[in-house]
Amino acid sequence: MRDIQFKDITVVYETEDLGLDAPIMVEGLPGVGNVGKLATEHLIAEVGAKKFANIYSKYFPPQVLVEENGIARLVSNELYYHKRRPGEKHDLILLVGDYQGLTPEGQFGLSSAMIEIAKRYHVSKILTLGGFGVGHMVEEPRVLGAASDQKMVDELTSIGVTFTRGEPGSGIVGASGLLLAFGQLSGIPSACLMGETSGYFVDPASARALLRKLMAILDVQIDLSKLDEKASQIDKITSKLKELEQVEEKASSDDLRYIG
Amino acid sequence: MRDIQFKDITVVYETEDLGLDAPIMVEGLPGVGNVGKLATEHLIAEVGAKKFANIYSKYFPPQVLVEENGIARLVSNELYYHKRRPGEKHDLILLVGDYQGLTPEGQFGLSSAMIEIAKRYHVSKILTLGGFGVGHMVEEPRVLGAASDQKMVDELTSIGVTFTRGEPGSGIVGASGLLLAFGQLSGIPSACLMGETSGYFVDPASARALLRKLMAILDVQIDLSKLDEKASQIDKITSKLKELEQVEEKASSDDLRYIG
Amino acid sequence: MRDIQFKDITVVYETEDLGLDAPIMVEGLPGVGNVGKLATEHLIAEVGAKKFANIYSKYFPPQVLVEENGIARLVSNELYYHKRRPGEKHDLILLVGDYQGLTPEGQFGLSSAMIEIAKRYHVSKILTLGGFGVGHMVEEPRVLGAASDQKMVDELTSIGVTFTRGEPGSGIVGASGLLLAFGQLSGIPSACLMGETSGYFVDPASARALLRKLMAILDVQIDLSKLDEKASQIDKITSKLKELEQVEEKASSDDLRYIG
Amino acid sequence: MRDIQFKDITVVYETEDLGLDAPIMVEGLPGVGNVGKLATEHLIAEVGAKKFANIYSKYFPPQVLVEENGIARLVSNELYYHKRRPGEKHDLILLVGDYQGLTPEGQFGLSSAMIEIAKRYHVSKILTLGGFGVGHMVEEPRVLGAASDQKMVDELTSIGVTFTRGEPGSGIVGASGLLLAFGQLSGIPSACLMGETSGYFVDPASARALLRKLMAILDVQIDLSKLDEKASQIDKITSKLKELEQVEEKASSDDLRYIG
């Protein structure tokens, strides 16, 4: 291992020569409903992608996490890669991690480093994944898009991604926005896909909607059954919470009757 | 396009050789009542100024905005230029944008970069535009001034800019202040013009007052009718809000009568 | 003394050539219940360790402390060393101080500097000491662990350090976490020992529990009587506080009786 | 004027060759009760010290102040000098300004720059002036001290400066603390003098107490009558506030009588 400086941003490679052909980069860091993170972690598990680098940075919190075996690891972002199997069309580089940069400076620094890596591996397309918080429960989450250019807009529209005037009104904040913009400014076709979500829970149903679009773009088949399970678990929890709320509301309206 | 580093401050030129003669630099970034921004954007539209550079920076929020066509763009500041037409007296460089620097360090960094650009193009005068929040509705907004030197004070006084002891009492914060100061310290005559505004609304009427002074300084004619329209729209909104307030006040005093 | 720059991080050595043989580095900076600080300061006093360096940094608060004799000193971290005496097995380097770094950047910067020093003196093991806040009074504080590798886990388990799944759930924040992680990434066996503590008081009883484990690891005998004294003082204070609480609770329930 | 970079810290000299002999540096930046600032500004006015440098920095707020004549100036710190007149014993360098550094990093950066200037001019002693907030009105403000070494403690004790165990308990924060510490670490005898003050008002009476000690140390005579005037003005204001308070208290106890 090369000598490591634990300042600013450190990329520690486990393998550097990946032998990839114009890979697509997929970003799924924590965010609204953890939708992008859930989707990308599921994709990594299902295609059996391999980790090739850890990213450490002063822009993450000064924290270690302790694994179940008692062994510590510094919070980080991680890069995985996947070489296409027969029948698949695209090599992949996947970015996941514990945190996004804590400050605007950190966000810019980390996304800059990521674009350098994208250029190094001749990334042909960048897809950033996130959640679009709407503040209420969503039955059938749409997937909203924002893209670097008209061709990407057309391509995504053709597979059912929604481009609606004024959504997202406040733009896209964080890594999903910056990687799209830095891709655009570097001449790499890029897009952000956002699964609708209440924003109140970790949302596997929204991640599932995202992955269906991703399967169409990447032209791969991924088993979604584990996300289905997680989604129905969350459904049960939210249903119970709703029942509790209704009980409470009834109780409090009963109370009020005595006052009236 | 040259290779771009997305760190600190990046100026991406679309055209570098502008062929300008001692241009006047006008700054109108977001601020109180967005007065300076409205005025400068109106000026850009009316004289048909052309964009020549985008400024990206870690000192802005890590955010992309999504245009109506679904295409994203990184938040930025923009530089426009205008070569004087027959009958006009001054070439112009105009600075507008989505945000000012988020931190003191960002403000200093960005205004430093802007002064380097001013020197590069041999800017002969810097005019920064802003709002002066007074906390109440203003019928006839005055335009207050602060300048780099006595000659500028005299020049501005002669066209009706107000210099009053103790206004603005707390000084001028942000780009409008720093560009004035950096101009002053660099030997470029500079001034800040501030349109009076309540500070509660985007204020086209105050921007109009600013532009009237600017027309006198720059010796150009600008059609203000679009600002007139915006100002009367805002007038209607604020009138309705006042009515609502009065209705509510009446209602609540009616309520109180029943209690008494 | 060499010329000192008071920026970023400055290490001012009183002695540089320590003649140590593969020392163990022990960190005890302020934290939850000041458990690590108390334990390390007690260890320094009991083995008679000598100070060899002061660390000053812009990452500490801009503050001087005033000693009882009226003489000021800039807040700092300090490094001590101890050469093993006949019968002892390990040379020691000990890190204590007034503050940890105030920001994530400061934490990363300071721990990076500390790892450079660890490498310079060929440190063979890093032990970071802290408190594990549980939010309630603890009769017999356990010592929890997190380690760089399985061998360290086994070694610490054998002397009664507790490795429990999900504790600490949120990981370890600050110098105790970072030095462990940087040790791990640099190939230096490292561990963090955390004494259980309420988190409400400075906790000498928890520090005593930590030191018992440390005595087993370092194979030294340390007199704990001064910590015993401090612990019983704290016991008295907390007992009195409990009594007062009970008196107040009784009083307020007496009050309530009159209302019911 | 040399080309100026408006980043980090910029020292713009009006005169560089001051011809001073081992001057004493006095710092009086804004702080508790503005005691140090009032005292140093009074000293500058009374001895007729001349400004020789402006200090600009991104560590100050991004702000210009507007003078009564409408001319703007960037917020700054300023350095003055005074060559001793016949009968006086010490040359002086005096530091005053609009603000202290806004962040710990700014405080360290600015005080570092100031110590470089102290070394450049062979400063023989550093005296930092501040207020010591006690939270209640003070009839006869004491002057408390903290010093770099025992000799300074003795010297200051001999002229009536108070060194009391535990005061100031929390140390000295900001430029007054850092310049003392950096002086100490650079081998320049240094001390901080703190005038007792309530901390609620700008306090010329405390500044007067400071200046009396300063006159003894510097062996100069300074006319304090202007400070006397300011002090009696503040006295009148605080007396009126007290009366008002008593009237209000009486009124509200009168009100309460009607309820009882």
Integer-rounded radius of gyration of chain A: 20 Å
What value does the average pLDDT of chain A take?
Answer: 91
Beta-strand share of residues of chain A: 15-25%
Oligomer: homotetramer
Span between N and C termini of chain A? 75 Å
Strand order of the largest sheet of chain A: 1-3-6-7-2-8-11-9
In total, how many beta strands of chain A? 11
Shape of chain A: globular
Elements of chain A, N to C (H/E): EEHEEEEEHEEHEHEHH
Helix content of chain A: 25-40%
Biggest pleated-sheet summary of chain A: 8 strands, mixed
Low-pLDDT segments, ≥5 res of chain A: none
- Helix segment tally of chain A: 6
SS content category of chain A: alpha/beta
Task: Work out the largest interface and the residue count of each chain.
Answer: A-B, 36 and 26 residues
Give keywords.
homotetramer; 260 residues; alpha/beta; eight-stranded mixed β-sheet; two-stranded antiparallel ribbon; 6 helices; 11 strands; 23% strand; globular
Structure description:
4 copies of one chain form a homotetramer. Chain A is α/β, with parallel strands linked by helices and 260 residues long. Chain A is built from 6 helices and 11 strands. Chain A has helices spanning 35-47, 104-120, 150-158, 175-186, 204-218, 225-259, and strands spanning 9-13, 24-27, 50-57, 63-66, 72-74, 77-82, 92-97, 125-133, 143-147, 172-173, 190-197. In chain A, the strands form 2 sheets. An 8-stranded mixed sheet of chain A has the order 1-3-6-7-2-8-11-9, sandwiched between helices. In chain A, strands 4-5 form a two-stranded antiparallel ribbon. At the A-B interface, α2, β9, β10 and α4 of A face β4 and β5 of B.
